[in-house]
Amino acid sequence: MTLGLRDRPHHFVDPAPFDPGRTEPVGAESSAVDRASSWRLTWWKFRKHRVAVAAGLILIAFYALIPFVEVIAPYNPAKRHGDYLYAPPQSVHLFHEGRFVGPYTHPYHFTFNLETFHRDYTVDRTKAQPLRFFCRGDSYAFWGVIDTDWHLVCPPENGTMFLLGTDRLGRDLLSRIVSGTRISLTVGLVGIAVSFALGLFFGGLAGYLGGWVDNVIQRVIEILRSLPELPLWLALSAALPPNWSPILVFFGITLILGLLDWPGLARAVRSKLLALREEDYVRAAELMGASKTRIIARHLIPNFMSHLIASATLSIPSMILGETALSFLGLGLRPPVTSWGVLLNEAQNLAAVQLHPWLLAPILPVVIVVLAFNFLGDGLRDAADPYH
């Protein structure tokens, strides 16, 4: 009995001889998926999450600013402009009186209002002051080593460029926000490195060894988690010596944030290891003589990497918010260090905010970075879950 054409199975048969060194996909498209590594599969699925990809690009742009904040900032963040205290933001224009001029600003004129006792600024729209690019401006020490004065954009000659206004001392707010990016974003990375190192170490020991080791670690975690987080932050931050240098204060705040954030990750690692340590591949590794450290690092932890990725991307914004909150309350970083929290500390005066709302501009980068980390974490978790 012969099969008809319609009854024959529809499958692909490659007539070429077998080549063990062949790397191209053979036949069907699914073979590329079968040959791909778990990281490649995760990347393919992550690319389809447009919101997460956009969030990742935003974070890359923010972190790309860190090495070049002095070049990007138009002014030295500590420079004071005595004639422009609480100056409102200036707008950038391209066309002046129907003619293309390029990016330019209009000059300020102020009068002191004797009734309200503050300065009233008026814009002189008859003059166009073009901005300068790749120019020489305020001097600075690049990375604290090279003395230079090159900037990406500079204010006009004999003019000003306060795109986000100035503060009570006449300092350009945009330059200070750009400079604060380095500290605020670095706190998150260093803090999460400390937190992850402790969480993976203690959680791995508790989950894999069990017994009295697990009991001791769990009791320590319960004690730490029972303490109110914000008052503990405040107490430890207030305990930092006031005569410490800004660098020591920075590392002190980072250690505080990292030491208080690891218990949640350690408990999650422990619970996952308790389930995975009974798997067959763990038993096989033990029979082959693998050490406990190798089993935890090479076999167990990679199997819940998606949870670790999500925890990292969600913990970094909590670190940033923690530093911002402590600096806002005056217990974190202090001037002359510039961070987003230090800048918001100057916006505590309700009257000043009501009269000069641009002082709240440092809130915008905090909100953008925190939302970007949350969207990126959701995308990475969804992309990694099916493959680990």
From TrEMBL:
Q: Keyword set for this entry?
A: Membrane, Transmembrane, Transmembrane helix, Transport
Localisation per UniProt entry = Cell membrane
Q: How does it sit in the membrane?
A: Multi-pass membrane protein
Q: Name one GO cellular component term.
A: plasma membrane
Residue ranges annotated as compositionally biased, kind Basic and acidic residues, are: 1-13
Q: Which stretches make up the ABC transmembrane type-1 domain?
A: 181-377
Q: Which PROSITE patterns match?
A: ABC_TM1
Q: Which domain of life is it from?
A: Bacteria
The region called Disordered is annotated at: 1-29
GO biological process annotations for this chain's record? Answer: transmembrane transport
Extract the CDD domains matched here: TM_PBP2
What family is this?
A: Belongs to the binding-protein-dependent transport system permease family.
Please report the name of this protein according to its UniProt entry: ABC transporter permease
